[in-house]
Amino acid sequence: xxxxxxxxxxxxxxxxxxxxxxxxxxxxxxxxxGLYPTVRMRRxxxxxxxxxxxAETEVRPDDLIYPIFVREDGKTHEIPSMPGQxxxxxxxxxxxxxxxxxxxxxxxxxxxxPREKDPEGRVAADPEGIVQRTVRALKEEYGDxxxxxxxxCLCQYTTHGHCGLVDEDTGKVLNDPxxxxxxxxxxxxxxxxxxxxxxxDMMDGRVKVIREALESEGxxxxxxxxxxxxxxxxxxxxxxxxxxxxxxxGDRSTYQMDPRCFRQAIRELELDxxxxxxxxxxxxxxxxxxxxxxxxxxxxxxxxAYQVSGEYAMIKAAAEAGYVDYRTAVLESLTCIKRxxxxxxxxxxxxxVVRWLKS
Length: 359
What we know:
GO terms for molecular function: porphobilinogen synthase activity; zinc ion binding. The protein has 359 residues and is an alpha/beta fold. It folds into two domains: 18-53, no CATH class; 62-358, TIM Barrel (Alpha-Beta Barrel). The protein is 36% helix and 15% strand. Helix 3 runs parallel beside helix 4 (130-142) and helix 5 (175-192) packs across helix 6 (206-216).
């Protein structure tokens, strides 16, 4: 017997051509209740003009915040772990902001890299520190035409690389003693002219202490953008190299969030909102869009998401290898972050994106 089956002679076999003409679309379930063919979703995609007309999410220059690394030693070379990004001096930071402001980018976050470090990171609060001097220079040059955000943390300034004070005997990162130092740092940034201070340390209670310090010194109009749900993530690798902020011992899992936890993130967001945060941030962005979405649903605060150095490096590497189209991948990633609910996106792609949008 021939093992192959001839469907044309098999009883009850129905070919595609014989089946389709039998369908009466007027009496088919597909034709009722606004379904096919009454509704054809491809109509919305007929042309680029129509797609743009009905687009639900649009990335704009005003959605973006660009991170700038400023070095106290004045070196301005490319950052090896982050191709396309450079270290800045005060002067080159001012020049870069001028170029980007002309393109419509108006918000910047500063990360300082000091010459000297100490065990408690108190150099971070120096009124003549690299961040404080850069803030003054930017605000003197551009005033309220730009928004200057400052990262408030100790990891770049401590000799051990942790985000808080450390017990010398046990190696434990000390929560409450760290709060005073963080408040001093935030206050020094506000005194220099920062519009927004952004605590990224993940110490419990730091938003409340910083808010009280700002209020007590008359800086009631300075916003706090809290790194509210900051996860203990592998995607920070290139940044830690760039900022010289990797911990000398242990890791940050005792204060940054466990990637396995969602409900804890919501509690962190709620607590920071209650303590006085004006903007709530989730970091990283793409791996945690579920948290971004829930934050948008639950809170009326502006929601920020940080597209971190590892996300940046992955797209760069994939594009360089020819696996993805660079521009398309960048814009898709930012669109997805905004569609999930982020009002603000911190991204290293910001300069290129504003140029693309302008063109």
